[in-house]
Amino acid sequence: MSDSRTLHLGCGTKKAQGATGIDFNPYSHADIIHDLNVTPWPLETGVFDRVICAHERRRVKVRRDFHRIASH
Questions:
Q1: Quick one: pLDDT at residue 4?
Q2: Using only C-alpha atoms, what is the Rg of the chain?
Q3: 11-58 pLDDT tens trace
Q4: What is d(CA 57, CA 32) in angstroms, rounded to the nearest whole number?
Q5: Can you tell me the distance from the alpha carbon of 68 to that of 29, in angstroms, rounded to the nearest whole number?
Q6: pLDDT-derived band of residue 1, with 50, 70 and 90 as boundaries?
Q7: Can you tell me the distance from the alpha carbon of 10 to that of 28, in angstroms, rounded to the nearest whole number?
Q8: Which pTM value belongs to this model?
Q9: Among 4, 34, 41, 57, which residue's beta carbon has the most beta carbons within 10 A?
Q10: Are 7 and 51 in contact (CB under 8 A)?
Q11: List of residues 6+ apart from 14 with CB closer than 8 A
Q12: Are 10 and 22 in contact (CB under 8 A)?
């Protein structure tokens, strides 16, 4: 198994196995409860190798922080 870190944005109740989940809903399976429209997100810069994002990718603020938290 690799040491890669995965972030699942807006994971809801279907968080990917092994991922760090972030979602606004306190009833979700997220590890971090946070409104993704509020940036910066409470995540370190450059730590995630993979980001799963099905619903949030079109918002400009989301795309900016998406690039900030991703490793290059």
A1: 67
A2: 11
A3: 999 999 999 999 999 999 999 999 988 889 999 998 999 888 876 555
A4: 18
A5: 23
A6: very low
A7: 9
A8: 0.76
A9: 41
A10: yes
A11: 29
A12: yes
Tokens 């429209």 belong to: 37
Amino acid at 67: H
| Residue 69 pLDDT exceeds 70 | yes
DSSP string, the chain: -----EEEET-TT-PPTTPEEEES-TTSS-SEE--TTSSS-SS-TT-BSEEEESSSTTSHHHHHHHHHHB--
Please give the backbone phi and psi of residue 63, each rounded to the nearest 5 degrees, phi first.
Answer: -65, -40
Lowest mean pLDDT among 3-12, 42-51, 56-65: 56-65
